[in-house]
Amino acid sequence: MNLKIAVLSGDGIGPEVILQAKKALYAVGVVYEHDFIFEDALIGAVAIDKTGSPLPEQTLNLCLNTDAVLFGAIGDPKYDSDSNAKIRPEQGLLKLRKELGLFANIRPLKPFKGLLDVSPLKREIVEGVDFIIYRELTAGIYFGEKKLNEAGTVASDLCEYTEEEISRIAHLAFQSAQKRRKKLTLVDMANVLETSRLWRKVVKNISASYPDVTLDFLFTDNAAKQIISNPKQFDVVLTGNLFGDILSDEASVITGSIGVLASTSLGEKNVLFEPVHGSYPHAKGRNIANPFASILSAAMLLEHFGLNEEAKKVYEGVEKAIEYNVVTIDLNPDSKFGTNEVGEFVSNFILNKDDLMYFNNDNVHLGQSTIV
């Protein structure tokens, strides 16, 4: 298979973790005789610095004319601390999602067995957890009209949804539930928000087309508690943009680190794969960022294009790295391994599953690379 992939590394640790994902895909290409063509482009703070725009037209055009987008992270402290900034890195990602029509963000939550004791939650709570969050991605309060009065003392953000925006992601979530344990939970605030009441109405109507799927409802505050206290009850979680953003990040504690969570952002014609974590600017250039989420995003890319055996090999590589304790300091504070070394281990595993002897501490600490 030949795939053209737009690579948007972005800011902070983005370039470092994306490099490891590219290594994994390169290894898959070698072993399974696929041709992955990578083309890099700017987005976020680095794009603002070089072009004045968080999403240059060249980047958007590239993404519109590739098979998939592999995304790193965006964000820079110099914009976070400036409340008067008119242009922000995050605007680039929001615009990209809108222009590509990426209306569904899919985030699987399934802890690796080797990391069960890393989670701050008790083992009996996290062991056996396996659910997916379907987050609406191109509407709601993030995209609504924003106002600030002249005095700068009153602000508002409009939260708005249409029936079509709700129904298209609801169908995807129901279809996913049909292939899993046949349970879907809608998370909203229908007790106080008119938009949430519309969500309930639309999703209830759609549920009639999926009689084999059990539908239940949770208010967002209760869902936040249940994700921590009893996460095994969930199968497929469906929710809006704001709630999905918050709850999926909260759910990352189940896995022990947000650095192991990958996601797919899906549209009618376009698809983007990215780690859930942010740009983590304090770790930039220090070789300490966890690349697993980015590598697992590459695995989700392979799955999307039907390369399931190849994706399985990538997952196995991550599992083996965890088994061998080849992890970054977020998973093991005493680890001697960094971003690059972890990425190299996974790539080398893909290239030669039965022979890991060449990957040893001497080579790692000397910085000797075994893969391009």
Automatic annotation (TrEMBL):
SUPFAM superfamilies for the chain: Isocitrate/Isopropylmalate dehydrogenase-like
Pathway where this protein functions: Amino-acid biosynthesis; L-leucine biosynthesis; L-leucine from 3-methyl-2-oxobutanoate: step 3/4
Enzyme class: oxidoreductase
InterPro entries per record: IsoCit/isopropylmalate_DH_CS, IsoPropMal-DH-like_dom, Isopropylmalate_DH
Catalytic reaction annotation: (2R,3S)-3-isopropylmalate + NAD(+) = 4-methyl-2-oxopentanoate + CO2 + NADH
Biological process per Gene Ontology, one example term: L-leucine biosynthetic process
CC cofactor: Mn(2+); Mg(2+)
One GO cellular component, as annotated: cytosol
MF annotations from Gene Ontology: 3-isopropylmalate dehydrogenase activity; magnesium ion binding; NAD binding
Keywords per UniProt: Amino-acid biosynthesis, Branched-chain amino acid biosynthesis, Leucine biosynthesis, Magnesium, Manganese, Metal-binding, NAD, Oxidoreductase
Enzyme Commission code: 1.1.1.85
The record's free-text note on cofactor binding: Binds 1 Mg(2+) or Mn(2+) ion per subunit.
Segments forming domain Isopropylmalate dehydrogenase-like: 4-346
Subunit structure comment from the entry: Homodimer.
UniProt record similarity statement: Belongs to the isocitrate and isopropylmalate dehydrogenases family. LeuB type 1 subfamily.
Known function: Catalyzes the oxidation of 3-carboxy-2-hydroxy-4-methylpentanoate (3-isopropylmalate) to 3-carboxy-4-methyl-2-oxopentanoate. The product decarboxylates to 4-methyl-2 oxopentanoate.
Name the record gives this protein: 3-isopropylmalate dehydrogenase
